[in-house]
Every structure is written in structure tokens, then in C-alpha cells.
Amino acid sequence: MTAGLVVLCGTSFSGKSTVARALAEQLPAVVVSLDEINERRGLWGGDGIPVEEWGRTYQLAQAEVLELLSSGTTVVVDDTSSPRFLRDGWRALAVGAGVEFRLVYVEVDQAMVRARRDRNRVAPRRRDVADDVLDQHLAEFEPPGDDEDALRVGSVEELGRAWRLGR
């Protein structure tokens, strides 16, 4: 892939950050993480963040992505990318910047998400997500529709094969 935009989509604890790092190394690309932007702002999604604050984080991410794309850098956006209008916004940004767009859906079932969150509570590798926040997130998550042409992977192990086939 020449300079372009890859947007990840998936629930919390689906493995998006792991996939983002693998893609960034393979392409090469720079990862823009909305969680990292929130942390710089003193916010943590696992505690629950008001919608207007998420909107501001999304605007900051778009500005970072546009700056990187304008310098010819490929970008991987690490975020849940739900609801759909966020994915549509990233797609429009790529079109406006004249770069290739690819949506990667990291698809795992809710039982796996909860098991990973529970393991993280025993041996933390990342910050926690409160039960009520995770429940709401899982209930409201909008997976990509068939018309979005998302590359679907269940793990980083599936990524290499799926990426080659889906390009």
C-alpha cells in the first residue's frame, strides 16, 4: 500500500491495538490511537467519556491523520470506529486527501472480549474498562455492514493472510 489510511474497527479487548502495531510494522505506517489522544487529554474511555469529549478527540485524531497523510505517511487509526458515521467520516477524509482507504474489522465474540477483560484484571496489560461501560459499549457497537467492504480478521495471526487476500 502506498500512502493511505487504514481504519480499525472492533470492540474493546478485540485486539485492535495488537493488529494496529502489526500493520504499522508491515506497511510501514504510523498508528494514531484515539485512546492515546484521550490519555493526553486526561481522559480514559474505560471510565466512560461524554459524547462531546469523544467528538473533540475524533477532531484531534483527524487533524493528526491529515498532517501525516499530507507528508506521504500511511496511517493506521486504532479506535473502535463505532458508530458507522465515524467510519464514513474516515472514508471521506481519505477521499479528500486522495489516498487509499481500507477498513479492518477485528471481529471477536463478546465471550472472548469479556474473557480478555477478566484476564487483564488479573494481570493488567492495559487499563481496565468498567463493567457498565463495557456492557453499554457491547450493546451499542455497530459492526461494519457488507457494503463497507471491511477486511475481517479475528486475530493478528489471521491478519497477514487476510491482508494479502483483501488488498
Automatic annotation (TrEMBL):
<dbReference type="InterPro" id="IPR017101">
    <property type="entry name" value="P-loop_ATP/GTP-bd_All4644_prd"/>
</dbReference>
<keyword id="KW-0067">ATP-binding</keyword>
<keyword id="KW-0547">Nucleotide-binding</keyword>
<dbReference type="Pfam" id="PF13671">
    <property type="entry name" value="AAA_33"/>
</dbReference>
<protein>
    <submittedName>
        <fullName>ATP-binding protein</fullName>
    </submittedName>
</protein>
<dbReference type="InterPro" id="IPR052732">
    <property type="entry name" value="Cell-binding_unc_protein"/>
</dbReference>
<dbReference type="GO" id="GO:0005524">
    <property type="term" value="F:ATP binding"/>
</dbReference>
<dbReference type="InterPro" id="IPR027417">
    <property type="entry name" value="P-loop_NTPase"/>
</dbReference>
